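Minutes, project huddle
Topic: does the predicted pose make sense with flavin-adenine dinucleotide bound?
PN asked that the exact inputs be recorded in the minutes so nobody has to dig through chat later. Recorded below.
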Amino acid sequence: KLGNATIKAELGRSSWKLLHTMMARFPERPTKDQKAALRSFIYLFSRLYPCGECAKEFQMILEKHPPQVSSREAASLWACAVHNIVNRRLLKEEFDCSTVADKYKCGCAAE
Ligand code: FAD
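Predicted holo structure (tokens), as shared on screen:
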């Protein structure tokens, strides 16, 4: 049986991968409706994320750093920045956001 911490970490890796890949595939010039959809998704994600402590923390981050949905680049950089805020809080290394587009471009990040 997996320990609790292992489950939380596995859920986190899968979730970040989904989020960053969604941003990499978000339209470069989204319509109003696409922008609204991404914004709603992020807020609903922050409510429904199945780790209560993480969800609460993420909602507080969103208050200070609302989703940027104006373009693919804005959304990708926003997701990278909020992931870095979580990284910092968990004493993990910061990720270089200038490489985020390349890493998730094809929906097949190396790891
Ligand atoms: P992860 O942080 O899961 O990252 C996976 C991979 O993404 C990394 O190996 C790296 O290649 C890449 N990456 C790293 N940083 C970035 C970045 N800034 N942008 C793009 N790619 C990047 N865990 C807790 O214990 N407490 C919490 O409060 C908590 N809150 C979370 C909130 C959310 C919304 C999510 C999605 C996860 C949360 N987690 C939390 C889980 C935590 O963030 C990690 O996913 C987990 O600890 C596993 O970490 P990891 O070192 O394997 O890499």
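Observations noted during the meeting:
- The CA atoms of residues 8 and 36 lie 29 Å apart.
- The helical segments are 4-25, 32-48, 52-64, 72-89, 100-104.
No decisions taken; revisit at the next huddle.
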